[in-house]
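Weekly puzzle thread! Below is a chain. First person to post its structure in token form gets bragging rights.
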Amino acid sequence: MKRWMCMSCGWIYDQEIGDPMGDIPPGTAWEDIPDDWKCPDCGATKDSFEMVEI
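Winning reply:
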């Protein structure tokens, strides 16, 4: 499965879960997350994430 990991803190975005604290509902594709969204753990910007396969 493809997930996106924050290279600053290791937090993983799973589109099946979304980011409830950041108002990103479950099922939201990575491409559909706004560019100004930030990591909920460390505040890193979206461009600090890399796709990883688990």
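Puzzle host: Confirmed. Bonus trivia for everyone else. The mean pLDDT is 95.
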